[in-house]
Amino acid sequence: MSQLTACAFLIGLVIFTCGAAADSDGGAQLIGVKSIANNLIVKGMDVTVQYDIYNVGDKAAMNVQLEEDGFPIDYFAVRSGFQHVRWTRLPPGANVSHTLILTPLQTFVFNASHAVMRYKVSDEATGSTVGYTTSPGEIAVIETADYDRQFSAHAMDWLTFGMMTTPSIIIPFLLWYASVRKYSNLASHSSRKNN
Amino acid sequence: MATSYIPCLFVFAILAIGVALAGSCEKPSIKSSVYTAADAHFSNHGIVSATFNVQCANKAASSSMDVYAVFRGRAVQAAQDLDSSQYQVTFSEPVKTYLPAGGYAIDLYDEDGYAQYRKAQRGEAGKSSVPEPMARIEFEYPRVRHSLWVHSETVAVLLLLGASFYAYSARKSILS
Predict the structure, then answer these.
(1) Which of residues 129-168 of B touch A (CB under 8 A)?
(2) Chain A: closest CA distance from residue B50 (Å)
(3) Burial class of residue B77, CB neighbours in 10 A (0-12, 13-18, 19+)
(4) Each residue of A71-80: pLDDT tens digit?
(5) Residue B160, domain member (yes or no)
(6) Domain at B67, CATH number
(7) Are A124 and A35 within one domain?
(8) Residue A57 maps to a domain
(9) Residues in contact with B129: Cβ distance below 8 Å, sequence separation at least 6, in sequence order
């Protein structure tokens, strides 16, 4: 009986220790989503790159840093926003958003890769954890002329066309209208005379 | 023996007061710029992105403080640029359900002010009113632009059909 009691006590101690160890392993865990908010990406027009970071862990993430080095300055100019940012603390279950506004300088197919996140999983952690956001993948930057051809109102084009075709339409119309008025006046005048 | 601890306590008290004062920003001045995007044809999100820097009378607070932004009831911590110590805060929503055109403001709080704001939001006793923000960024949000409802080619075709119908009617009346 005493041996049974001792075994039960040891098993209970092991279970308690394992449970305690599992609780102390909990920490912050960040998921980063990087997306392009544009339906169209056109040379010389703004591109919005949006980063959403979620803390799905059970502790606050400390000293969260987001580093974006995937847009070379030869191809993109930064219109607004920063590429290396930091948040002091991201509570569990919370999320933050960040945007970077860029202007493509050339027409090309670009492979947008991930951004890097560095954070501490808890206040007591000594080292940083590195994570990566998702990658939007290939993005095609189209020429401004192609965008205008497809989506602009072409109002000036139609106005120019109308001005060019107006003489060949208006002049015969005016001649015909003057003739109709002249002969309809003559006809009504002669019918009044006969009456 | 007890008197030897007094200088240490005195130094510690001075340091504690210094740390507490460095946490709050005195006489803040803000320089800001706001980027807005509201094109439903070109983008699927409406964006309000404000970048700003904070200068405090107590300079130690400027570089180390956390700034919180509140916009239309939503509070977020501002991101701090690692290269320049400027701050950025972003709010985005699907563009079709986003803001009407008009003037808006983003309220900025330091750590103490944000703590008071949260207490006011929770309705704690004696904290029913929202505290005054450290600074306010005001901006204009534009009207959401949509793609053309009727293309110019459609208008041109309709005008052409109308002119053709008029000419046919006139010819018919002449011949009759």
Answers:
(1) 147-148, 151-153, 155-156, 163
(2) 8
(3) buried
(4) 999 999 999 9
(5) no
(6) 2.60.40.10
(7) yes
(8) yes
(9) B120
